[in-house]
């Protein structure tokens, strides 16, 4: 049975439940351990379900859960965009 | 159904541009000017867009608004391109790269420095909230730049083919598509610099906005920001929930109402909020069968008038029902649902299979706030508004100076509220950057009054409570 | 539970309807809008000021004596919840005007399958009038007197 939580990194509900049992009982820890939310969508799709599972398994309320850090870039960009900056042309 | 493109529609007219071809894995694919790569491929019959990297399961697109990244492919050698928000171009070479794309060649940099551009006001997001913020600030005399990812501003309004609710003065009775066009036109007339196809990549201190525009990395040093980045489709846990054919309601709307392509032949709608009910109606209008609408709660979530509309078309609405499984080899061929009791437990003996090739998830939205978190805006979980939202003053200012929020990013409500919040935020930001004046005050009052009106009544109770929870005093906000 | 909250189907007792005398007199509006939602285009469109609301979230308050049953509001309602019935039409037949936004669009004189609030077939009915405003049609059907409170939609046959 496959219930997918993180579509980008193939993290299933089972993976999360096991990880919580092993002691990864915060979203940030789950993220580092499972790569949950670290794919190209940057956690936009999976975090809600992950939060619910964590709440169900640990009894924590959503208010008590941390939110993994958000940092740029928010979307996939090619390395060249950052590695080879060109002067911005003036607006036409 | 072999032809997936919609040609006859009771409400929409698809003025498809010039027909052309691009290459997909050696095959010629027909596309029309303005279509996204994902839409053209979907119209051609492709449902498996990429592959997941560990379980190697196929992925179809899910959200179709550039958020979920389930449609990424290689385009002209560049990997990780979200094909649902990238327009197809003639002779483009598109390939699936699965989970492990090849490393692309890099154009070695010339070492020039990035020049920062100074602007007064940056509006992020071109939906009803962003457009109204831009219009209001520009009307008051501010220099406004609006950044939007889409080809045309309008946000999610462009796929709203139904007439709007709300007050007559705020465009009720007008179809969303038209409202979007009108607002964009007004913004243009007022001299708002609209930057379409521009991705906002992040926030840097102090009030710097990084964007990718026309293939370049740009940094804007801004006086103030109204963030109106919208919402993200909620996902649901059930067996095989990642099958191609399991799509978000927003994704289905994009495909059907923006691109004129039907998602499939028979749909199971999960969720009876207004989105689920409206999208069901729009599917029927496009000639797609809706098997049924299921709802986990004991009562229908959306307006009675929307529910009645699809009931008259013979679509059953089953409350206290949940989905447990998508059936099929590796894409949707059916769904298994069952009834639940008051404690969300399965009612034995109620499990049954529904024939469908699409499972549409209309299980709510939540605010897209990643940009605001980068800007250190203090957040709070407010269930009534759909998730984490920024704390804000009555004027929509966040806890970070110069940053305002409006629309779904401030809390999930509907389009009229988004527009009013945009108006309020645009006026308030103008006021912060300029001297006080009567007109600004008047616009703020008008917007606040409108918001109060919209949040009256039983349906306004939930957002009213939510907004109260996250609205803080000027002093607390710093 | 069998209210509209569970079924999506409104019952006659949920609605604000005109009295018998007014119904027999001639065309009159039936607004099947029973919740306090923030919406008011029906108020603005009425040329006779027959529809009133104090707050935008009120349900429409209709002055049935002022209402002429003109049906302007039928195509204006975003909820497609407004109908016109005419019980003065003939001894055994009544007219029902319903909003319609599907394809194909029927023509005057066509026979269509009249449907009830659950989409169930009621009777074959003749189309007596087709009016368009914006993208929405108001289609008038001739139905059996006994079905005037049941017919709220139709399906084109064939």
Q: What is the strand and helix layout of this fold?
A:
The complex is a heterotrimer of chains A (92), B (478) and C (158).
Chain A: E1 4-6, E2 11-12, H1 13-21, H2 27-34, H3 47-58, H4 79-83
Helix pairs in contact in A: 1-3
Chain B: E1 19-24, E2 27-32, H1 37-43, E3 50-51, E4 58-59, E5 72-75, E6 78-82, E7 93-95, E8 116-124, H2 128-139, E9 144-147, H3 176-189, E10 193-195, E11 199-204, E12 208-213, E13 216-227, E14 231-233, E15 246-248, H4 249-258, E16 266-270, H5 274-285, E17 289-294, H6 304-312, E18 317-318, E19 321-327, E20 334-339, E21 352-355, E22 358-361, E23 365-367, H7 370-374, E24 379-382, E25 387-390, E26 403-405, H8 415-433, H9 438-454, H10 461-470, H11 474-477
Parallel strand pairs in B: 1-7, 8-9, 8-13, 9-10, 13-26, 15-22, 16-17, 16-22, 17-18
Antiparallel strand pairs in B: 1-2, 3-4, 5-6, 5-7, 11-12, 12-13, 14-23, 19-20, 20-21, 24-25
Helix pairs in contact in B: 2-3, 2-8, 4-5, 5-6, 8-9
Chain C: H1 4-7, H2 20-25, E1 28-31, H3 41-45, E2 51-52, E3 61-62, H4 72-76, E4 82-86, E5 93-100, E6 111-115, E7 121-133, E8 136-144, E9 153-156
Antiparallel strand pairs in C: 1-4, 2-3, 4-5, 5-8, 6-7, 6-9, 7-8
Can you give a write-up of this model?
The complex is a heterotrimer of chains A (92), B (478) and C (158). Chain A is mainly alpha-helical and 92 residues long. Chain A has a single domain, classed as Arc Repressor Mutant, subunit A (Orthogonal Bundle). Helices cover 37% and strands 5% of the residues of chain A. In chain A, a hairpin with a 4-residue loop joins strand 1 (4-6) and strand 2. The radius of gyration of chain A is 17 Å and the shape is globular. Chain B folds into 3 domains: 19-95, Roll (Ubiquitin-like (UB roll)), CATH 3.10.20; 116-232 and 366-477, FAD/NAD(P)-binding domain (3-Layer(bba) Sandwich), CATH 3.50.50.60; 246-364, FAD/NAD(P)-binding domain, CATH 3.50.50.60. Chain B is 25% helix and 26% strand. Chain B is built from 11 helices and 26 strands. Chain C has one domain. Helix content of chain C is 13%, strand content 33%. Chain C is built from 4 helices and 9 strands; from the N terminus they run ααβαββαββββββ. In chain C, strand 2 and strand 3 form a beta hairpin. Chain C is globular, with a radius of gyration of 15 Å. Chains in contact: A-B, B-C. Chains A and B meet through helix 3 and helix 4 of A and strand 6, strand 11, strand 13 and helix 7 of B.
